[in-house]
TrEMBL record:
PANTHER family: NITRATE/NITRITE SENSOR PROTEIN NARX-RELATED, SENSORY TRANSDUCTION HISTIDINE KINASE
Protein name: Oxygen sensor histidine kinase NreB
Cellular component per GO, a single term: cytoplasm
Keywords: 4Fe-4S, Coiled coil, Cytoplasm, Iron, Iron-sulfur, Kinase, Membrane, Metal-binding, Transferase, Transmembrane, Transmembrane helix, Two-component regulatory system
Known cofactor(s): [4Fe-4S] cluster
Catalytic activity, as annotated: ATP + protein L-histidine = ADP + protein N-phospho-L-histidine
Cellular compartments annotated: Cytoplasm
Amino acid sequence: MSDQQYDVDAWERREQIVLNVVPYVSLGLATALGLLVDHGSPGRIALQVGLSGAAIALVTYMAVLHRDRLERPRVAGAYYVVLLGLIGALIAINGMYGFAIITGYMHAFWLGPRWRALAVIVCAALGAAAQMGGILHIDRGALLVYLLVFGVNVLLAGGITLFAWRISEESDRRRDVIAELADANAKLEAALEENAGLHAQLLAQAREAGVHDERQRMAGEIHDTIAQGLAGVVTQLQAARQARERDGDWERHLDVAQQMAREGLAEARRSVQALRPQSLEESALPEALAEVAGRWTALHGVPAEVRTTGTVRIMHPEVEGTLLRTAQEALANVAKHASASRVALTLSYMGDLITLDVRDDGAGFAPDRVAPSADGGYGLTAMRRRVARVAGTLEIESEPGAGTAISASVPAVPMGDAG
């Protein structure tokens, strides 16, 4: 519960206590004082006590036990008329019951706005009569004094009552605003939780749906690289045997076979690494990217700078693996096609997204004119599919002679949000 909500609730509790206690205190005090100063007949005293008891019973039944009924205008009006009738009868009997008029001022809250002013005027009239010693003590000679006392009561009691109403209305508005804010906050939290759940669910579904595609891709890659390389090794070995039988240049065939075997081994290692990036198991994503870039620089002699922005957070393995493999594929494209002299990789943690930007100053190309080839069109198709599996997007900006910029954006799904 917020501090503002606590303050409003505390104010309402105090207000309810006052509404519950004041009628009993005022009627009880008026009855006690009335009995002390009234030395009338036993019947007069019994009438005062009976009317006081009736007023207390009415307040208890309507304003304490069944307060919800006072939300209906007609019921509230009937209750108020009966209450003022009892208080007026008591004031007519004994002026000390003017103390009970406080209850009349307070319970005017349950009337509609148009009737509250009339209720204040009636209460002021009854209060002025009590201050004059009772209704029976007002004659022609005291009428002017009564009117002056009545005017003072209207100004003082009316001003205080109006101020109390304004405070009550402001409290109601505040409570409504706080309730609206709490409802909006609850909806926002629910939307955020639903969004996180959808991200996690989408990631899990995309990972499951991508298993078949990944198997097909790996099968094609093995067929195009490792299998063909091994077939080439077998062919060279057979050629070397035939050349040896003819006393030909068999050593050259062995050298070619050895080179093809090494290339096949390198392709096999690259395929295994693509399936399960070992570097992510040993270090965080920024360090793994720096390690990949360092190895790539050492192999190709082209500087590759890695920069990280935002607060680094541990993400789901599928998210981090996708970004690492995208970086590897992008660097492979730079090595094959760009003839670049410099490459920059930027990893950015931005709230609910993580982006990877790979820029080079190489030859560039026209993305809309690249036709898919055996490797998927510079590997772009494969990268797009890989990023799409984790509900991400891949954008490419390039033109001939102006270098290339590849930007992959994926949801920032924390570790453990998807199973």
